[in-house]
Structures are given as C-alpha cells and as structure tokens.
C-alpha cells in the first residue's frame, strides 16, 4: 500500500475554521503552519488534526461545516485549473484526471446512469474516516457551487460509508439535500442537467497554463516535490541557498546539485520556477492582498 497524503493547502482551510469558531489552540495552529499550499500532508497527520479539532469542539456534521469554508486557493493548481474550465462537465472530467494533486487516499470514478452523474470513491487504500470524507465531499460540492453560482448545481444525494454521528437531519441542514449513511462507498449523485452549466470564471488561456502545470506536478517525482515544498516554506524567511537547502534535505550540496542535474535542472532555475509558480497562484487568489503576496 502506497503512502497517502492530502494537499497542504487544507491546513489553511482548517485554520479558517478555527478562526471562524473562535477556537484558540497555539499548539494546533503551530502544527498547521508547517504545511504550505504546495506541500503534502501525510494522511495520518490530516486525520489527527481533524480529530484534535473535534475533541476541542465536538458537533455533528463538523467536517461538512469545515468544507463549506473552502475556496479555490485551498486546492492549489487543481483549484485554479477547475475554475477556468468552460462547463461543469469539463470541470468534473478535469477533477477526475487530477484529483491526485489534492489527495491520493482514494480514486474517483464517474459514470452516467439514469439521468444522473454518479461520482464514487473506492477503498483500495482502505476506508477513510467519516470526518475526512465529510471535509472532502463538502469541499468539492462547495467548490463547484462557488464557481457556477447556479442553483441547479445542487446534488440529488450524498452517501457516506460510516454511521452518522447524530441525526441525519443535521447533515442535510448543512448541505441542503439528502444525506445518508452506511453505504459500500462514498457516492455523490447529481443531475445530468448540471453538466452543461457554464463556469463564470472560464478562461481558455489560463486553463491551458494550469493544465500544463498540473501535468508537470502529476508526473513530478518525490525528490522535486520535497524540494519544492522546502523552497516554498523557506521563501517567506529569505532567499534559499543551495547549501541551506541541502542541509535541510540532509544531503551534501554536491549531491543536491547532481540530482538536479540528472533532471536537466540547476538550483537557481528550480528556485525561479518555484517563485514564479507561487507568484502566479497568489496573484490569482482574490483572498490575498498585494501586501500578503509580496
């Protein structure tokens, strides 16, 4: 079984929830700051963070409420890619293609049956937790509703695997449609009428740029992913150097230089690419001010 992860951008989503609920826990907030939007968070850490929040303030449908606060920047490149698609149908296809950029906990399967678009997530990596499932499904639904601003993008039903933590009506109140529990896999059903709904932020040029970046990230090896995460985190504290980066990777500068050279890269080039990517993502994020970007 492969190591599983979620995007580090979800740490920002959890902090948004803590702020909204006025939950002050220095240790928890410190743990969240360790993950940037371009990093990967081990699934075990992600689930522990959710359980910690629930232990501080337990309530039914907490994961759904967290997901309702999600915005494109929490999903990095995939978020921006989807928001530039032309229709919801195209967005769903892109999501299926690139979901691995958000998490690799389970694969998404999409089929059309009985005038419904049925999205389901397998359990090849093992069943996820109810809290985690709630967050991801609520995030996805909130996201597609946000980019379409169309009332027709209201799912027919949402099915979870685990038992409800309380009355099902509490979950339906958050989402606004039927929610059920105890199924073989997590499944989301929508009407096929929603497929052709246009996306308000559609932009073919930006879609092409983001698709190229998504392809690069999807095929990127673990070494470059780790190095890019390290550089992204270090840029807030100054300009990273090859020597300091090698020290953090626990290898020699010579080894770092050689590994980059094997990939037809050098340190300055890869640092510049990382900075350009961050700048692009930040400039496309309406939630950030110019001061925060700089």
Automatic annotation (TrEMBL):
Gene3D superfamilies: Homeodomain-like. Pfam families: Arabinose_bd (PF12625). InterPro entries: AraC-type_N, HTH_AraC. Residues 225-294 form the HTH araC/xylS-type domain. The keyword DNA-binding applies. GO terms for cellular component: cytosol. It comes from the Bacteria. Keywords: DNA-binding. GO terms for molecular function: DNA-binding transcription factor activity; transcription cis-regulatory region binding. This is HTH araC/xylS-type domain-containing protein.
């Amino acid at each position: 079984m492969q190591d599983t992860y979620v995007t580090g951008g979800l740490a920002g989503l959890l902090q948004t929830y803590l702020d909204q609920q006025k939950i002050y826990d220095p240790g928890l907030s410190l743990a969240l700051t360790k993950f940037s939007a371009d990093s990967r968070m081990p699934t075990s850490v992600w689930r522990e963070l959710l359980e910690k929040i629930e232990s501080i303030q337990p309530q039914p449908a907490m994961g759904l409420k967290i997901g309702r606060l999600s915005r494109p920047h929490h999903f990095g490149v995939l978020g921006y890619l989807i928001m530039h698609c032309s229709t919801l149908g195209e967005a769903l296809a892109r999501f299926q293609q690139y979901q691995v950029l958000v998490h690799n906990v389970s694969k998404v399967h999409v089929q059309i049956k009985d005038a419904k678009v049925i999205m389901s997530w397998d359990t090849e990596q093992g069943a996820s937790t109810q809290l985690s499932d709630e967050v991801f499904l609520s995030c996805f639904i909130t996201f597609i509703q946000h980019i379409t601003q169309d009332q027709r993008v209201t799912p027919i039903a949402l099915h979870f695997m685990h038992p409800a933590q309380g009355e099902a009506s509490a979950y339906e109140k958050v989402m606004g449609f039927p929610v059920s529990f105890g199924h073989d896999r997590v499944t989301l059903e929508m009407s096929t009428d929603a497929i052709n709904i246009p996306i308000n932020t559609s932009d073919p040029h930006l879609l092409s740029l983001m698709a190229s970046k998504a392809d690069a990230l999807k095929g990127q090896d673990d070494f470059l992913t780790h190095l890019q995460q390290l550089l992204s985190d270090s840029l807030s504290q100054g300009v990273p150097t090859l020597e300091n980066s090698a020290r953090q990777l626990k290898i020699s500068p010579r080894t770092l230089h050689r590994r980059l050279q094997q990939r037809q890269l050098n340190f300055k080039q890869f640092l510049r690419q990382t900075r350009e990517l961050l700048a692009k993502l930040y400039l496309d994020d309406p939630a950030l001010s110019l001061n925060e970007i700089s």
